[in-house]
Design brief:
Blueprint: H1 5-8, E1 9-12, E2 16-21, H2 39-46, E3 51-52, E4 61-67, H3 70-81, E5 86-94, E6 100-105, E7 108-111, E8 116-119, E9 128-136, E10 140-147, H4 154-161, H5 179-182, E11 203-211, E12 217-221, H6 226-237
Parallel strand pairs: 4-11
Antiparallel strand pairs: 1-2, 2-4, 3-4, 5-10, 5-11, 6-9, 7-8, 9-10, 11-12
Length: 239
């Protein structure tokens, strides 16, 4: 799947490019596949001085900030360091949950060659996420996730701790969701295999709020990509 970088842009000025990252593309170059597309490679082809302000997991879609010059990069990096950036993610979780400003404050450390994390109260790094229910369906919930810190897989492992793992996230106990789970009178054609409604971790970086170089605070929103949008539409339709 060839991606046209310009099609991803949701905002651009002299200092920043904000994109809606598609799922299945790594933010940085992958060690295992040097020919695969990455956001940093696409960004540098578009603007040679581009630097990513932060990153998203390969499977995660959504808003990603890219700095076009060193001053813009430093300005954003300082806001991340001082926790002045507001990140809002949307996740579809297994189970029906009523979260109202629930804060999970549990430290995290890496396991398994750095490809996953665990809660580690002794050696882990401080991590905090705030969760709100946006919409509860019959067997799943659309949850707003606001990470205060920026640890790897933080949202995913914290939701697992709330017994609300993200749909289709086997690393942290998330089960796939099928149309037959949500549609009461669902008939699958004989001889065909039913596929999950979403074939990746159901997590989308919905918005990012930070101050531009002129001091003006701005919120940038990334609409749902097709797969996440279809999942939410089907859940709403049959809930």
């Amino acid at each position: 799947m060839k991606v046209n970088f310009e099609d991803l842009i949701v905002f651009e000025n002299d200092d920043y490019i904000l994109i809606n990252k598609p799922p299945h593309i790594a933010s940085l170059d992958e060690r295992t596949n040097d020919r695969a597309q990455s956001i940093i490679r696409l960004a540098k082809a578009y603007h040679p001085d581009a630097q990513l302000g932060h990153r998203l997991d390969k499977e995660t879609s959504g808003i990603l900030a890219i700095a076009k010059n060193p001053e813009a990069y430093r300005h954003l990096a300082m806001q991340f360091e001082h926790r002045e950036v507001t990140k809002r993610y949307h996740a579809v979780t297994n189970g029906v949950h009523d979260f109202d400003g629930i804060s999970v404050y549990l430290p995290i450390s890496p396991i398994k060659d750095g490809t996953a994390v665990k809660i580690d109260r002794e050696k882990g790094k401080i991590a905090e996420t705030i969760f709100n229910t946006l919409q509860a369906y019959r067997t799943t919930t659309l949850v707003e996730c606001m990470p205060v810190t920026g640890r790897m897989h933080q949202i995913r492992v914290h939701l697992m701790c709330l017994k609300a793992p993200i749909v289709n996230d086997p690393t942290y106990g998330g089960e796939p969701v099928f149309l037959s789970d949500v549609k009461r009178k669902f008939n699958l054609k004989q001889g065909t295999e039913e596929l999950p409604l979403i074939q990746r971790v159901a997590l989308h970086a919905h918005s990012l709020t930070f101050a531009l170089l002129n001091g003006e605070e701005q919120t940038f929103v990334a609409p749902y990509p097709k797969d996440f949008g279809v999942l939410v539409k089907q859940l709403e339709k049959f809930s």
